[in-house]
Amino acid sequence: QVQLVESGGGLVQAGGSLRLSCAASGRTFSSYSMGWFRQAPGKEREFVSTIGRSGATYYADSVRGRFTISRDNAKNTVYLQMNSLKAEDTAVYYCAAGPSGPYYYTRAQDYDYWGQGTQVTVSS
Predict the structure, then answer these.
(1) Where are the strands (E) in 1-124, listed by range?
(2) What is the mean pLDDT of the chain?
């Protein structure tokens, strides 16, 4: 079992930055791929970014070049640095723990454990 707790959300003006954190319980954090997803009101949950066990990263086209995912296995934490935020980035952001395989996992159904989410609101 893995428990995930996100933090760092809030209200920011367009063009600003936020850093989300996701703290994981358990001693096997380093064996999981970690992902960030988001869900805006009235929309389906969508993939944002993922980082594998090796540290390899992958991003949705909508955030590539603006967001950076990273992980600190010693702290059992994954981060999402979000720069140049836009109004369309407004959503609840979720972190998730998923497979230990070598691929990029971009589907929500690939992930086994989810946090409760943190709200990010970007004012234009």
Answers:
(1) 4-7, 10-13, 18-24, 33-39, 46-51, 57-59, 67-72, 77-82, 91-98, 113-114, 118-123
(2) 95
